[in-house]
Amino acid sequence: MFWDAAFVMPSLSIPEPGSEPAEGQIYHFTATQDDKGLRLDRFLAASLPDISRSRITALIREGHVSGTGGTIKEPSKAVKPEETYQLTVPLPKPAIPEAQTIPLDVVFEDHAVIVIEKPAGLVVHPAPGHESGTLVNALLAHCGGSLSGIGGVRRPGIVHRLDKDTSGLLVVAKTDAAHQALSDQFADHGRTGALLRAYLAFVWGAPVRAKGVIDKPLGRHPNDRLRQAVRARNGRVAITHFERLETFGTAKKDVPLASLVRCRLETGRTHQIRVHMAAIGVPLIGDELYGRSHRTKSALLSAGARAQVQTLGRQALHAALLQFTHPDDGRVMRFESPLPADLLALHLNLKKI
């Protein structure tokens, strides 16, 4: 293959090998006999080594590649010798999230911090696949320009986060000084300060012990980038304190069918409670990522509880307690959140089995 400069628009240029291509640029490549039969995405990836193949595949599917016959949207299309392919790398979307009027349940707010009740289904900050409609978009509209900028343009004010489908309490910084102070508290995980985070989790089965500590390092799953996993080697320290609060029904060998567990975080890893509960054999009810193998247990529930589980649509996890030291005056701020309507209904139905 070769770069055919004759086909490049005068205002643009073919990048030197090893240089990063500019966004908003057009490239032309003509295939040779040696390229015959190559997949189009492989051909273009080899031509532009500084753009990942996955990115090129996405560009093809989005209609940014054309050949003699027009636009090509099939990454697997075979390359033809002597045919010239045009690739357009579009300009990036603005990195700064837009303010959007989205209702917020504000628990507390002053000049330095804002504490909100995040509903299940709300993503905390913009990310691929969720460029808008996030908590950050809502906060920009609610707080205007007062959010801390330390978190970067895509995460202003964010010092910790909750999974999309986890509900409950979350604190956001409105000033840079508050952001730094809160970040220090979260980094310390409450070992020397007042920070405290506790969750209510409905799980399948019940922990063998009434209370205990799960100390299992976590890291990215080796075969699934969307999941976390217990990683004895190269994992990051992850510690969860748990207490069994209530049990529901009976399965085989007098083991409870489900239970309500209080989890307190000593560290704050991605999906920590969800992975740790699954690791001790009691995955969260409704957790399709880590508890799918336990879905058949719903057949043992009463009709009401089974219907509630089937319509839940998320993991049964709620951030019920948040405590921290106010970054300005040192007051210990403690907030408690009752179960939201969907988990309250689940609780009431589980009590009836």
Write the layout of secondary structure elements.
Elements: E1 2-3, E2 25-30, H1 40-47, H2 53-61, E3 65-67, E4 70-71, E5 84-89, E6 105-109, E7 113-118, H3 135-143, E8 167-173, H4 176-188, E9 196-204, E10 211-215, E11 218-220, E12 228-230, E13 239-248, E14 258-265, H5 272-279, H6 303-312, E15 317-325, E16 332-336, H7 341-350
Parallel strand pairs: 8-15
Antiparallel strand pairs: 1-2, 2-5, 3-4, 3-5, 6-7, 7-8, 9-14, 9-15, 10-13, 11-12, 13-14, 15-16
Helix pairs in contact: 1-2, 6-7
How would you describe this protein?
The structure is a single chain. By secondary structure, the chain is α+β, with helices and mostly antiparallel strands. It folds into 3 domains: 88 residues, RNA-binding S4 domain (Structural Genomics Hypothetical 15.5 Kd Protein In mrcA-pckA Intergenic Region, Chain A, Roll); 95 residues, 2-Layer Sandwich (Pseudouridine synthase), CATH 3.30.2350; 160 residues, Pseudouridine synthase. The chain is built from 7 helices and 16 strands. The strands form 3 sheets. Strands 6, 7, 8, 9, 10, 13, 14, 15 and 16 form a 9-stranded mixed β-sheet that branches. The chain has a 5-stranded antiparallel β-sheet with strand order 1-2-5-3-4. Strands 11-12 form a two-stranded antiparallel ribbon. A hairpin with a 7-residue loop joins β11 and β12.
Keyword list:
single chain, 353 residues, alpha+beta, Structural Genomics Hypothetical 15.5 Kd Protein In mrcA-pckA Intergenic Region, Chain A, Pseudouridine synthase, nine-stranded mixed beta sheet, five-stranded antiparallel beta sheet, 7 helices, 16 strands, 19% helix, disordered N terminus
